[in-house]
Amino acid sequence: MTESIEKKPMAFGFDLDGTITRKEILPLIAREVNLYDEISMLTEATIQGIIPFEKSFRLRCRLLKEVPVSTVSEIVRNVPLDQEVVHFIQKHPHECFVISGNLDVWIAPLIEQLGCRFYTSIAHSEGDTLYGIHTVLNKADAIQDIKQSYERIAVIGEGMNDVAMFELADTRIAYGGIHPPNSMIIQLSDYVVMNGGGLCRLLNTLL
After folding, report:
1. Which of 11, 13, 131, 145 is the least crowded, having the fewest Cβ atoms under 10 Å away?
2. 38 part of a folded domain
3. pLDDT at 2 over 60
4. Which residues span the domain enclosing 163?
5. Does 4 score more than 80 pLDDT?
6. Smallest Cα–Cα separation from 122: which of 137, 142, 139, 141?
7. What are the pLDDT digits (tens) for 131-176?
């Protein structure tokens, strides 16, 4: 007879770029190779769902692969964060998960700083060199994994690549702290919040 595992009551799944960070990470990296305008346009088109996330992400990574991993780490270490959201995550590290399509080696400083569990895309890299992408994260897979240990999950995001996790979550929060949320995300959402303080007040009611 198989023993049932007692699940914890509530988990929170956060998108990273534009939800926890106050700037998109890939355009910041792009400044290093004078591709800021191109990467910014691709990023915005991806958020709005004009270009599928995986196709866009692979293209953006191909354009940025010449930037040394250590340079990216320094950029990411200094990216501005929403401190109210950061405080909530650090206060509840066992309930909070960051679900980001970004590469593990690129956002390693944030993984260390936030202290919660991350789901990311996986890089093929060695030392300071990025060779390519091993796996692009499917956010639905992250939600399915979290649901094995938690009764309910609330997700927070704003872009088209968040749709997969919104469709599987119990509570869906469109967040417009940096970008206006994608129209499909708004349609799927139970709540729409436009700043970090309002978001954290809402999250505290869900605990």
Report:
1. 131
2. no
3. no
4. 8-22+80-206
5. no
6. 137
7. 999 999 999 999 999 999 999 999 999 999 999 999 999 999 999 9
Number of structural domains found in the chain: 1
Residue 52, domain member (yes or no): no
Q: What is the CATH number of the domain that holds 171?
A: 3.40.50.1000
How does the average pLDDT of the chain come out, rounded?
95
72 located within any domain: no
pLDDT at 33: 87
Residues paired with residue 119 on neighbouring β-strands, in sequence order: 99
Strands (E), 15-79: none
Residue 60 lies in a domain: no
